[in-house]
UniProtKB/TrEMBL annotation:
Protein name (Swiss-Prot/TrEMBL): SURF1-like protein
Localization per record: Cell membrane; Membrane
Superkingdom of the source species: Bacteria
Transmembrane segments: 219-239
Location (main, coarse): membrane
Coiled-coil stretches noted in the UniProt entry, renumbered to this chain: none
């Protein structure tokens, strides 16, 4: 009754179905793994942002790397901005994906150490890539700043190439070791994204709070792949039953035709 399953067409169809099931299961497991990763990152960011502010030097020091648990922690520091040591970070976008620069300004602490502060985004405004853009001046005098602590940027983590031979006072990546060499100073590891004081005239444009990654989407994809995996054998069995029914109908029709008496010849 099911000998048709040994035909070339049905052997190929069955092999495809057998291969699809574990593939879809694995894709569902991968999406679930992504869901767990994103959920963990969201929880980590939320805890860091909700934690009480601490002194910057309690979490970082010259040559120290910022850990995953320290990332996004709110830190404070007292000192003054060094506008002469300021640089801009090329090819950075705002919330609307407009291309411009991030403004990176050294912040000199009372003990002489330097903390790198990302003051925000400014537009390129069609300026030449070889010219230093017009940058709003930082606040003068001794002030207290508050911001989110971030690790040094790397090409591996960001995908941004650290190009050489750039115009003066322009960089591609924010790296405390490179800036320590340029400034000839002790620079705290990582950098700080400025939250307070807010810029006058809304420029540089503040860098927004990091948002949650859409972990629920990965969860939905995982369920979707597993439903597909479950649907494959059901669909295969449905096709088998339909093929069997069609073949039985064809055989019945053939038997009926053979059993029917011949019509008498016309006179």
């Amino acid at each position: 009754m099911y000998r048709f399953l040994l035909s070339r067409q049905w052997v190929i169809l069955t092999l495809v179905a057998v291969l699809l099931i574990p593939t879809m299961i694995r894709l569902g497991l991968w999406q679930m793994h992504r869901y767990e990763e994103r959920t963990a990152r969201n929880d980590l960011v939320a805890r860091a942002l909700d934690a009480a502010p601490v002194a910057a030097e309690s979490l970082t020091a010259p040559g120290r790397k910022i850990t995953t648990d320290e990332r996004y922690r709110t830190v404070t520091a007292k000192g003054r901005f060094d506008a002469d040591g300021e640089v801009v970070v090329r090819r950075r976008t705002d919330a609307d994906d407009n291309i411009g620069y991030h403004v990176l300004t050294p912040f000199v602490l009372a003990d002489g150490k330097v903390m790198l502060v990302n003051r925000g985004w400014i537009p390129a405004d069609g300026a030449s890539q070889t010219e230093y853009p017009e940058v709003p001046a930082p606040p003068r005098g001794e002030i207290t700043v508050t911001g989110r602590l971030m690790p040094d940027e790397t090409t591996e983590a960001s995908g941004i190439k650290d190009l050489q031979g750039l115009p003066d006072r322009q960089i591609m990546l924010i790296n405390s070791e490179q800036q320590a060499e340029r400034l000839d100073a002790q620079v705290l590891g990582g950098y700080v994204v400025l939250k307070e004081p807010e810029p006058k005239g809304d420029t540089p444009e503040p860098i927004g709070r990091p948002g949650n990654e859409n972990a629920a989407l990965n969860y939905a994809y995982a369920i979707q792949w597993w439903l597909f995996a479950a649907a494959v054998p059901v669909g295969w069995w449905f096709l088998v039953r339909r093929e069997k029914r069609d073949r039985e109908s064809a055989e019945t029709a053939e038997d009926t035709e053979q059993a029917a008496p011949a019509e008498p010849a016309a006179v």
